[in-house]
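1st attempt posting a full record on here, be nice pls
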Amino acid sequence: MKVPFFSSRFSQIAALVLLLGLGLAIRLYDLTDLPLDFHPTRQLLSALKARGMYYQTLTDAPADQREFAIQQWKIRAAIEPEIIERVVAFTYQFTGEQLWIARVYSSLFWVIGAFFLFLLARQLTTTDGALVTTAFYLFAPYAVNASRSFQPDPLMVALIIIFWWAVYNWADEPTSYKWAIIAGLFGGFAIYVKFVAAFFIIGGGLGSALRRDSVLETVRRPQVYVMTALGILPGAAYVIYGVWIAGYLGQQFGGRFIPALFLSPSYYLGWIGMLNIVIGGIALMLGLLGLFFLENEKRRFLIGLWAGYVFFGIYFNYHISSHDYYSLPLIPIVALSLAPVADWFFAQLNRLTATRLARLFASSLLLLGLFASLWNIRAEMKRTDYRPDAQMWAEISEKIGDKNVAGLTQDYGSRLAYWGWKSITSWPTYGDLLYHDDLRGAQRNFEQQFANIAFKKDLFLVTDFNELNRQPSLKEKLYGYPIFAESDAYILFDLADSH
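the predicted structure (as tokens):
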């Protein structure tokens, strides 16, 4: 019988507690910095929504601020149910408006997911492999940044993992209604939080169900229909309400699938680029090789997870090749796939460290590698301080006053809306123009577009100068107007003379 490297129960528990504790600690480092370090457009969408919900409960807030906050919440796209936003807004009632609250919740969700991922990986391999799975999931640099962001994805990933764990246990006891109900509830909640979870729920469910049984045997089990019903109902109810009753979801399902991209090398190269950002080539290679280290029954389960991700990337072909966080659920898949490789590695290490001194030295090297990785992640967080940006946007707001403004700014004006309490009409980015060109076959005429956006505007604000340089027609047009105000961070062009 193979003896694990972490052989005693104490060492196993201590290692897991250390990983979970450090995983939470690194995510809470630099806690109060502004949420501009990771996809700020998406984070500020949730931030503005949460603030609007909070201000709706503040009867003693200034009337103009309260009205603006609620309006910003209501006008912004509602794609997924506003779960994390409502939890944060509720917490604001006890803490006041503190953006770091969302960072705490997202970090907790991710770490909870790590615990269930450990339980699942231990069933696939051994405790040694499960600890490496947990470490990769917690400390992959991209995972750290993404899992502390103000968006529903960290919660969704945690729920997907709990579903995988539950459905894997159900496959070991296929007549159990207990595991079927647990799996169905968490799978359904994951899909309710974010619809894209369905690909990973279906992949995990099929991979688990077909571990031992054939398709015919699987469909004969009533527990399968219990899981399916619980998985479908919450998300289906939200879609029915959002599309056919309230109507706010009607436009949210377009533009996700662009058939022409399958003939474009940019789709495949873009997808590879996203994988390199999220996972890294070495980890991806080792994860795929890990499939060969498993026995056939367990390999089927992991193949189901990988297949779910592949079909997800085929359907969301534009986003998978251009939005790195769409590959976030791949992190636990790769982490699980690394478990059998790690198990083999630790078996060799255990054989080579027969003495207590050698075992202590090997353990010290493992700890050194872990802390070196954490130090690098900490250094990256410390490198940029976004706190001064809040003052800059407040200054811009003062310059604007009550004037009507269009602008080319970061995050479509969300930063000005959040820290400056001002709304502007946003000029599209270069990426937006390309995206709409792909979808509609033509770009709008520049002069007509400028007239539509800048019509009767007093000022045009530019804070994203890199984006301005990518649109020479806009740059030439704007510099034909006088400058109303400027600094190193922004320029306000005076459009009033053009009316």
